[in-house]
Design goal:
The complex is a heterodimer of chains A (about 450) and B (about 400). Chain A has about 450 residues and is of the alpha/beta class. Helix content of chain A is about 20%, strand content about 20%. Chain A has 2 domains: about 5-255, no CATH class; about 375-455, no CATH class. Chain A contains 9 helices and 21 strands. Chain B is mainly alpha-helical and about 400 residues long. Helix content of chain B is about 65%, strand content about 0%. Chain B is built from 17 helices and 1 strand. In chain B, helix 7 (about 175-190) crosses helix 17 (about 370-400). Strand 21 (about 335-340) of chain A pairs antiparallel with strand 1 of chain B.
Chain lengths: ~450, ~400
């Protein structure tokens, strides 16, 4: 019925604290936040004032470069703070909910008769558009583009990720509605969903091409799936959107109200009860997860919004990132490690390593690992070759691309395939790097400088 | 280990900026990070990181070198006693003779090399890199056992400064550092680097009339180099050395009981190192395999040509003499100077192996063809990578045209 693709390169890191396949409704958070830095490429223009009352769906700010793209409040309440950082950059617009279910009504859409323009206008107005991202550059999509195709990864393969069947339970009609809307928005390339091999969640979904993917992480990265189905060429634009956001989009069009639902996988070695919870994007993290004051190794606990490989480290009062569907609690690793016991000459039985210089590869595949946030060494120049390639399932030479970015050689970046990649695709390379190179940061800088250069 | 860390932490302020000993910060930092992996935590990007670092990578190579080092030390003694006809020397005696040669070499190599590294790290204000840990061990192993120590010191200084530091240090060098040291000696002191340096005291033994017949102190390559340009049928006395009962029989060459550079003689000891490097994934099996194939192919081609006695040597015998095996496992696989793409590694290894045998046979003035071949391919490696990348780029552009 559907296409099948097998990815061989990559690795699954089985961290301790895998979320159970149960969903509980989180208690209402005492504070929500929409954080402009979550949306790469955004220059916000805030249109609310502190103390102003907003409904769920009221626009809080828009993008100065794309004024039609609105960013909306997830709940009804009062704008309690607008937090700015250096150079008055807006970091966060915080909303304290009033407890009333007041939604701004955008009206129901009939997808059978909708034209692309009217549909797009409604999505923009309702604040659903920021959930669309684009390749190249991995930034918020540009509504004036007509994308070649729209791609959705139907699963997350990163460690401690949410399970699709759990996250979409009871939401398949919304998801189908979202797919129908996407097929109106998409160009000739259509809508593509990448399903996890053996997962039947999308079996009944119509109106899109479903490809089953089999293999280790990063197989669930949408960039990997695009590369193996319809690779992005220079000059082409494709849009991507998370599978939960497709369901949210479907619900938005069916009901006319903005509800950015998030089923979040809470896990990690310091999480007492790893499970899924249902909340809203931007909710304060402590509203749905108990954070212990000290970690099991005596160090402090790091709260990560998003995947442990790509997410953001958030402060104690942190909020769930706009695109994030996971929260992990890990122990910090700020204790120096003696060379013979747990350092570089030790046996390293507790270290999960992609290198065979550690005994990881001799251990059972089912073992779960309790990793802390220690760097595991110092930063060096590139020395070892061939290690990125083992976990990088693209027909791209990752180290050469990184080197082209480091010297800001735009021409080489283009030729070596930068249009197809996003920082998250380099997360495993960064994890296993002997020289501790910050690969994701370098890729982000490369994408940003290319975007500035070509705009 | 808490108390040790407390001691380090308590003296640390003296070495930091403004402290009395701040000029020795590099030394302190090197020792501190050597004993304790720092408690740095991830700041951005991936929150968890692999435990692999350059220290562990390099220490694996050192471990892989230990068999060759131990055998080489023993072999110095073994060769010495054999050359003077002593047959009842025990292992301790042989190791002692060897140790008196090897340990000073290692000390000079590390002392000079790390000294220079410390100075450069201090000047540049960065921590010391681990690259020289391996180079410093490789250099003694590719030296003739009787090389004067001051020459080794000069060679190490040249290799570290000109071969590596001028390019920016570990990870930036174009050619293999250890081979640069060997090449320096070969071209700067050609007279001292040939002749009676492969067996201890061979000149004195000869003068004293102690030398056993046949032990001239020449290596297998030295003997064979003499056959080039001569008629095949007049070279029987040389080729008989390579026959089953000869000094350089296949058996002896594989075990390693022949004169040669300290670490290069034993194929078995090197093979143990190769297994360690391949099992840990530190050494590229692609390079080793293609290097071996390249050498064998050239050996077969020479057999087919058969223009001199050297060319008639069995290909398997060709690859077990000289530094071929050592170069294949420990030199060609240096990730910094080898080709960095997987496809490129096959090409690089194959050509380096091929050239190793070609150079040693075609040009007897350079008996150690492996050194020349690997250095040459080090220089060519970026070119190989360039074409591999170009093929990738072309593939992408073709895809664009096919839309």
């Amino acid at each position: 019925m559907s296409l099948k693709k097998t990815i061989r390169k990559g690795v699954n890191i089985r961290l301790a604290g895998i979320p159970a396949k149960t969903v509980t409704d989180a208690t209402k958070a005492s504070c929500y936040s929409v954080q402009p830095p979550d949306f790469t490429g955004l220059t916000p223009k805030v249109i609310v004032k502190e103390g102003e009352t907003v409904k769920a769906g009221t626009s809080l700010f828009y993008d100065k470069n794309q004024p039609s793209v609105h960013y909306s409040s997830p709940v009804a309440g009062i704008v309690s703070a607008i937090i700015r950082g250096a150079k008055r950059r807006v970091l966060s617009v915080e909303i304290t909910p009033s407890g009333k279910e007041l939604h701004k009504d955008f009206g129901v859409s009939d997808l059978k008769t909708s034209k692309r323009e009217t549909l797009l206008a409604k999505i923009l107005e309702g604040g659903m558009f920021p959930f669309f991202r684009q390749r190249p550059y991995d930034v918020v999509a540009n509504p004036t583009d007509s994308p070649r195709s729209i791609h959705i990864s139907g699963f997350d393969s990163s460690p401690l990720a949410a399970t699709t069947s759990v996250a979409l339970e009871g939401r398949m009609s919304d998801f189908q509605n979202g797919i129908d809307a996407l097929s109106i928005l998409s160009g000739a390339g259509g809508v593509h969903v990448g399903a996890e091999c053996g997962d039947n969640t999308f079996a009944e979904v119509t109106g899109c091409t479903i490809t089953e993917f089999y293999g280790p992480h990063p197989v669930g990265n949408v960039g990997v799936q695009i590369h193996h189905t319809l690779p992005v060429n220079k000059g082409e634009v494709v849009w991507t959107i998370g599978y939960q956001d497709v369901a949210n989009l479907g619900a938005f069009l069916a009901s006319g109200i903005y509800v950015p639902t998030r089923v979040v996988a809470c896990g990690g070695s310091e999480c007492a009860q790893p499970a899924h919870v249902k909340t809203l994007a931007g909710a304060s993290i402590k509203s749905f997860i108990n954070v212990p004051s000290t970690a099991s190794n005596g160090d402090s606990v790091r709260i990560i919004s998003g995947s442990v490989l790509t997410g953001d480290r958030v402060a104690d009062k942190g909020f769930l990132g706009a695109y994030h569907t996971a929260v992990a609690l890990l122990a910090e690793g700020s204790e120096p490690k003696f060379l013979l016991t747990s350092g570089w000459l030790g046996l390293g039985l507790s270290r999960f390593s992609l290198s065979k210089a550690y005994p990881t590869w001799l251990m059972p595949k089912t073992k779960t690992w309790d990793l802390d946030t220690n760097m595991g060494g110092e930063e060096r120049a590139f020395v070892v070759s061939g290690e990125y390639e083992k976990v990088f399932p693209f027909d791209i030479y990752p180290v050469h691309l990184l080197k082209a970015i480091i010297v800001n050689d735009i021409d080489s970046m283009e030729k070596l395939g930068i249009y197809e990649v996003a920082p998250e695709d380099f997360a495993l390379c960064e994890y296993g790097c002997t020289s501790k190179i910050e690969a994701q940061k370098i890729i982000r800088e490369g994408l940003d400088s290319l975007r500035i250069e070509l705009s | 280990m808490k108390f040790l860390h407390n001691i380090i932490s308590s003296v640390k302020p003296h070495f930091e900026k403004g402290g009395k000993l701040s000029r020795f910060w590099v030394v302190f930092d090197a020792l501190e990070t050597f004993t304790f992996t720092p408690g740095h935590v991830t700041k951005q990007g991936s929150h968890i990181r692999d435990g692999i670092d350059l220290k562990r990578t390099m220490s694996m190579v050192i471990i892989a070198l230990v068999p060759a080092l131990l055998f080489g030390t023993w072999n110095i003694g073994d060769q010495y006693f054999a050359s003077i006809g002593t047959t009842d020397a025990d292992m301790i005696a042989k190791l002692t003779v060897g140790a008196f040669k090897v340990i000073p070499l290692i000390l000079v190599s590390y002392g000079v090399g790390l000294g220079i590294e410390f100075i450069f790290a201090g000047l540049r204000g960065h921590g010391i890199n681990e690259g020289f840990l391996v180079s410093g061990m490789l250099i003694p192993l590719i030296m003739p056992m009787d090389v004067p120590l001051w020459m080794v010191a000069a060679a190490v200084a040249f290799a570290v400064i000109i071969g590596k530091e001028v390019f920016g240090g570990t990870g930036m060098n174009i050619v293999n550092v250890a081979l640069t040291a060997r090449a320096f000696l070969f071209f700067a002191y050609p007279k001292q680097m040939s002749g009676e340096i492969w067996i201890q005291d061979v000149a004195n033994s000869k003068a004293g009339g102690l030398l056993v017949d046949g032990h001239t102190g020449a290596t297998a390559l030295g003997h064979l180099a003499g056959t080039v340009g001569e008629k095949i049928d007049e070279m029987g006395h040389v080729m008989s050395l390579f026959a089953e009962s000869g000094m350089f029989s296949l058996h002896n060459c594989i075990i390693g009981t022949i004169p040669g550079s300290i670490g290069e003689t034993s194929v078995i000891a090197i093979a143990i190192g190769a297994v360690i490097l391949i099992a840990t994934g530190i050494g590229s099996w692609r390079i080793m395999a293609s290097f071996l194939v390249g050498g064998l192919v050239m050996g077969v081609l020479f057999n087919l040509m058969g223009m001199n006695a050297y060319m008639t040597l069995d290909p398997v015998h060709q690859v077990v003499i000289g530094g071929f095996m050592f170069g294949m496992v420990f030199m060609a696989t240096d990730p910094v100077t080898a080709a960095s793409t997987n496809t490129g590694k096959y090409i690089y290894g194959f050509l380096a192996g091929l050239l190793s045998i070609m150079i040693r046979v075609f040009n007897p003035a350079y008996p150690e063809g492996v050194m020349m071949a690997i250095l040459f391919m080090n220089v060519m490696a970026p070119l190989i990578d360039h074409y591999v990348l170009q093929a990738n780029i072309n593939r992408r552009q073709k895809r664009l045209q096919n839309i």
